[in-house]
Specification:
- The structure is a single chain.
- With about 170 residues, this protein is mostly beta strands.
- The chain has one domain: Jelly Rolls, CATH 2.60.120.
- Helix content is about 0%, strand content about 40%.
- The chain is globular, with a radius of gyration of 17 Å.
- The chain binds calcium ion.
- Calcium ion binds next to strand 3.
Amino acid sequence: MAAVLGIGPAAFADKVLFDAEQNPLPNTKTRPDPEDTTAGNNVALWAPGAKPRDVQIIPVDPDWSRFTGISIRIHVNDVEPTELMVLCDSNPEGATDLNYYLKKIPIDWKGWKTIVIPFEEFTKARSPAGWNRITCLKIQNYGWGCEPNPAAEYDFDDVKLVEAVGK
Ligand SMILES: [Ca+2]
């Protein structure tokens, strides 16, 4: 029987931006899933400590306009609730300042959770060019009232663009 190729609806599937199986994430340590070290799943451990820091994911394709949100799997260690900022750089041609979309994420769970952030929930900093021109996804522990939590350790996995939020 002939193999069925993934064309048609499958061509509009979610798009992976980061998975620790594929490549390391700068400023993080690749390690097995802390909840199940035997499952063969790698994740990226980020323990920024007390300093303001970020992790950056550079998309291969800057055009995110056919998607509607970002999905991120985050594992949190046993700490008091804290917050992270998610930023999407989107500079117009020739821009000399930083233009981006931003969203504050309350971190009030322990263990794994998948958060899905619709693009429409982001606010704008200055004049971002649009979701068709995203040059960097940043997750950071400072700014807009966020204070670095020295005890917080985060694992990231399965960072992806989702075509339809809620489906
Ligand atoms: Ca993984």
